[in-house]
Amino acid sequence: MTTLKLVAHALTPGLRGLVLGGTPEPDQASLEAARELKPEADQAYCGPEPAAVRTAEAMGLTATVDAALRDRSYGDWTGRGLEDLLAEFPGMVSAWLDRPHTAPRGGETENDLITRVADWLGDLAGGPSPSQPFGEPVTSGPAADRRTVVAVVHPAVVRAIVLYALEAPAESLRHVDVRPLAVVTLSAHAGNWSLAFH
Fold this sequence. Notes:
It is built from 8 helices and 6 strands. The chain is of the alpha/beta class and 198 residues long.
């Protein structure tokens, strides 16, 4: 069985100001709070954003940066505040918020993000033991039965993974609130992911 602990990275000015995308540095106070999280992990991954990398480091993890775990791409809207975009393009932004199957020019839809993380989860569910190279299946021994993986990612990635695990439509996105440093646990049985409550 694979247990996956998702950790939303530390607070950033972008998250606080509802800025779409970008690569802001994490707040120092939030990083200090991350040091209190000490998850045990056989393997660790993180998204490529500085906030994800630095949060993983603050937690004492040696994490592999995986581009598949990056934040959703916002195309032409990257780095723009949501309030500013609503003031400048009220119709376009309202439609985008109401219909997650749409994307800003050059960006990803919510379904694009869900598909990307679903592929990553599929690889992880059939992945290696901590001592094996990725891509070689685990066939026997204790590691074949149980391992814990920690992934430190943008809150949008946590939401997408939760929606995928629940087989919920992308429209459910607005009902999943993920705060910085939130921890969500999932488990994989026979390649199927479920939310796990402890």
